[in-house]
Specification:
Layout (H helix, E strand, L loop, with lengths): L7 E4 L9 H16 L3 E6 L11 H11 L9 E2 L4 H13 L3 E4 L3 H6 L22 E4 L6 E6 L3 E6 H4 L3 E3 L7 H11 L4 E5 L3 H14 L5 E5 L24 H11 L10 H11 L11
Parallel strand pairs: 1-2, 2-3, 9-10
Antiparallel strand pairs: 4-5, 5-8, 6-7
Helix pairs in contact: 1-8, 1-9, 6-7
Amino acid sequence: MTLGRPYVGRFAPSPTGRLHLGSMVAAVASYLDARAQGGTWLVRMEDLDPPREVPGAADDILRTLEGFGLHWDGEVLYQHTRHAAYRAALNQLLQEDMAFGCCCTRRELAEAGGLQVYPGTCRDGLPHGAEPRSWRFRMQDGEELDWQDAIQGGQHFAGSQVGDVTLLRADGQWAYHLAVVVDDEFQGITDVVRGADLVEATAAHIALQRALGFRTLRYAHVPVVTNAQGQKLSKQTFAQPVSISEASETLKKVFDHLKLTECEVDEPKRMLDEAASTWQLTSLKQNEA
């Protein structure tokens, strides 16, 4: 239980390719935390970037989860069905002067040194005759974004460190930050267990939750899996996909990364059940509160 509501967790992959060891760590950690709490575990397909999506990847991801014994509750939510909800959230922010149009190109932002944190070029209005290419969240001046991460410990970001994140991209696609916040609220998510590479994104999400009148969630950011070069395992670093035929062996690697004791069973579902019976986020804790 958390936030006065029954526990609801989720795994939200993007169908840009097959699952690899790093994504399985995030899936298993979120699944175990939900099951250990007697909660609900949902799957959401973040399919909002058609140019990057791989045909058949969404179905492959679901088959892989099932093959690893990771059975979700309820129906899978596909973000491509949620455009109206994202538009409504953007309209709310615009009406409350919490969003603004931006005409900057990526090249212009790069030249201004603002690809990471938006430099505020269009915050006070567009140049005469310019049309908005994208829409951005207006981070409030002096915003302080703090939360107690269940693994990483106390976190603090000034709003100026996060900046005016994109809500609707110049190519007409909804941005991750807006969609994930709207869908977490829609699905009643209470707990988010995901990779530590998303800690800074969480700061933006908390700011958006406040602006939209949503409740802030409980967060736990799991240490990411890295390759021999110290790079985070990802499709960009050519991470090898996992295979259902090697599910038990792969789960042992996942459990080792998550500091779980070695299982005495060798069947995926039974391995997960055994792991859930001893699962504690504190075993992964990075910093003391």
